[in-house]
Amino acid sequence: MSESVVLSVIGGSGLYQMEGAETVAEHALDTPYGKPSDVIVEADVGGRSVYFLPRHGKGHKLLPCEVPARANIHALKQLGVTHVLAVSACGIMREEIKPGDMVVPDQIFDRTRGQRPSTFFGEGVVGHLPFADPFCEELREIIIGAGQETGAKLHAGGTYICMEGPLFSTRAESNFYRKAVDASVIGMTALPEAKLAREAELCYAMLAMGTDYDCWHEEEEDVTIDQILAVMKANGALANRIVAEVAA
Length: 248
Prior knowledge:
The protein has 248 residues and is an alpha/beta fold.
């Protein structure tokens, strides 16, 4: 990765810190949109400063709909961040993706309900931006290469369904997403994060960690939060290795 790149990692469920990285500083910032989810930790990763922000706050205190996404992205922009690697625990929508596998999606299908503040525009400032390809291809390719270097079981491409939550899908919804949208994974946090990053001119891509089959898979038990956190804990070290490889 170029020396001009300033990398941030937004950690999802189960990934609340960067293991093995030396903390350089902690940044408690304020923004016009309030405070971010938590203090942003500046860590040394292989000689490069990487800014880590736990999306749900330390201790997982924020629901997906409560995440202050505008404040988070604004704070990262204040720190001079140029690239954002977002880590997210996701349900699995395809048979060939197994629990513990990684997915680097290239599309998002929005199933949020319009309740989350999702733009920096408005109040007299009008703007319209292209969002046909919601993830930064440059960073996607770096993440894919890093995953391959670490030996992760990684799937390149696929559609991320972003649902409102906090409840998981009904079986009818799950089957619809799988068949009509051809989704690969389902989660609750890619939006409005990705849209706001685009408006802030940040290169944003996601490492989705498959934790469980969504409820379409009738041979598997329905998902529980305990399952999600168990898989995230088991894969936390791998996610940290991928981050270190991305930062190299």
